[in-house]
């Protein structure tokens, strides 16, 4: 069975500081990996995804994530936090079938 | 980009009534859609997988007679909450699986309040 662990349910950063949201997964097969963002009272928006190829993936709003197979990680980063980045972030893993597994989410607060 | 819509976005109903929520993939065909429920400040809870032309697959603990799912076309799935009660009040989110890379795209969610 697959699982996703997001370390830190709450992360606070200062505006302009580096954002690092951690995601580790367990999978018995090469996974597809996703990061989604959720703003209050809205659905989830796809930030970026890794399927195959380059392990450093760039997404929308300046976010990127790197697939590290040896560490079974897919951490999300952004060099400089903006106030509008405050939201809930979910990491997800799929075994390329119809099964998706979501992490418990990380709430990002940006301090002005 | 892939767009998924949900309707209605908000619904308030009396206890005992049934509520239907629609999920549509606007610019792609989706043989598979998912229905989730989300409680405040929590992650998504998968309720069921909706497959076009066949019966939905429900997760353990989800009452299929309570939450009726119909996926009659490649762009539309519906979730009907039958005989709704206050404990069914929640945020319901659907997603559609976009082939070929099997990415889920989510709808904006429907907030249900049962009085």
Quick overview:
With 112 residues, chain A is an all-beta fold. Chain A is built from no helices and twelve strands. Chain A has strands spanning 3-5, 10-14, 19-21, 24-26, 32-38, 44-50, 56-58, 64-68, 73-78, 87-94, 100-102, 106-111.
Overall pLDDT of chain B: 92
Radius of gyration of chain B: 13 Å
Strands of chain B, total number: 11
Using the alpha-carbon principal axes, give the shape of chain B: globular
Straight-line distance between termini of chain A: 41 Å
* Overall morphology of chain A: globular
Helix percent band of chain A: under 10%
Binned strand content of chain B = over 45%
Low-confidence stretches of chain B: none
Number of helices of chain A: 0
Structural class of the secondary elements of chain B? mainly beta
> Which chains share the greatest interface?
A-B, 23 and 25 residues
Sketch the topology of chain A as an H/E string, one letter per element. Answer: EEEEEEEEEEEE
Give your account of this protein's structure.
With 112 residues, chain A is mainly beta. Chain A is built from no helices and 12 strands. In chain A, strands 2, 5, 6, 10, 11 and 12 form a 6-stranded mixed sheet that branches. A 4-stranded antiparallel sheet of chain A has the order 3-9-8-7, with no helix packed on it. The radius of gyration of chain A is 13 Å and the shape is globular. Chain B contains no helices and 11 strands. Chain B has strands at residues 4-7, 10-13, 19-25, 32-38, 44-51, 57-58, 67-73, 76-81, 90-98, 103-106, 110-114. In chain B, strands 2, 4, 5, 6, 9, 10 and 11 form a 7-stranded mixed sheet that branches. Chain B has a 4-stranded antiparallel sheet with strand order 1-3-8-7, with no helix packed on it. In chain B, β5 and β6 form a beta hairpin. Classes of the chains: A mainly beta (112), B mainly beta (115).
Keywords:
heterodimer, A: 112 residues, four-stranded antiparallel beta sheet, globular, B: 115 residues, mainly beta, seven-stranded mixed beta sheet, 0% helix
């Amino acid at each position: 069975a697959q699982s996703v662990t997001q370390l830190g349910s709450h992360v606070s950063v200062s505006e302009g500081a580096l954002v690092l949201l951690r995601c580790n997964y367990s999978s018995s097969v090469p996974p597809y990996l996703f990061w989604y963002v959720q703003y209050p009272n809205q659905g989830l928006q796809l930030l970026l995804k890794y399927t195959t190829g380059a392990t450093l993936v760039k997404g929308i709003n300046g976010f990127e994530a790197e697939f590290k197979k040896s560490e079974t990680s897919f951490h999300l980063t952004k060099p400089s936090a903006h106030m509008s980045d405050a939201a809930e972030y979910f990491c997800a893993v799929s075994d390329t079938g119809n099964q998706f597994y979501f992490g418990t989410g990380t709430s990002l607060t940006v301090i002005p | 980009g892939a767009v998924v819509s949900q309707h209605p976005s908000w619904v308030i109903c009396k206890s005992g009534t049934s509520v239907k929520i629609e999920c549509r993939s606007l610019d792609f065909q989706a043989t598979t859609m998912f229905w989730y429920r989300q409680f405040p400040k929590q992650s998504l809870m998968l309720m069921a997988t909706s497959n076009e032309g066949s019966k939905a697959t429900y997760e353990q603990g989800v009452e299929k007679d309570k939450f009726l799912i119909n996926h009659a076309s490649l762009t539309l799935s519906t979730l009907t909450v039958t005989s709704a009660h206050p404990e069914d009040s929640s945020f319901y989110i659907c997603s559609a699986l976009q082939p070929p890379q099997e990415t889920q795209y989510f709808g904006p969610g429907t907030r249900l309040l049962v009085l």
